[in-house]
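Task 17 of the worksheet. Students: predict the tertiary structure of the chain below and write it out as structure tokens. Keep your answer in the requested format; marks are given for formatting as well as content.
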Amino acid sequence: MIVVSLFIIFRQAVRVEDALLRSVGMKRAHVYTPQRANDPLLDDGAPPPLVLQIYFDELPLLEKACAGPLLNINNGVAQAMTVRRFPVPNPGKPDCTYLVAYDGPAQDEHAWHAHYLAHHPPLMARLPGIRELEVYTRVDWIAPPSWQRANCMQRNKVAFDSAEALTAALHSPVRHEMRADFLSLPPFSDAVTHFAMATRVVSP
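Model answer:
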């Protein structure tokens, strides 16, 4: 069972070889690059040129990879997070992912997560054509001293067969229900970003 995920967000275009990802003891990796989709409610600007999401079975394996094969990837912003996967009606292997980041903090993060996890994933799971749904919360982890660390309160992703399928889902009535639930969340501050990303899966 996959329990932790390492996100590395790059602000400049870089190339990371699949062979490197396969050398780290991962369960699998997702390589995200910018893709266009239309959200009628939001426009958060240009997405990052590359995001890596590397799944591990347990936190010590993630930390070992950071201290070993991944050590020299020091031009990104990294964060380790717990993975919460939610069922969807028709799971599949998505080609387009909507990556969401809540920087936080909330006034009461326990209350914020409790509300979000109880109410928002059931709505997201009803998005037409959704293939994958995960929510991530931060964990304490050991990173190389040279790395820049992110500290997002929460990340999410919903994934679809294509950018067109994501756009259709974002224009569905469910999206407006999600917006209403978002506006009912307990108080929190700082940015929330939403980026459509082409998705490529790298297996061990």
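Marker's comment: The two ends are 15 Å apart (CA to CA). Residues 16 and 55 are 16 Å apart (CA to CA).
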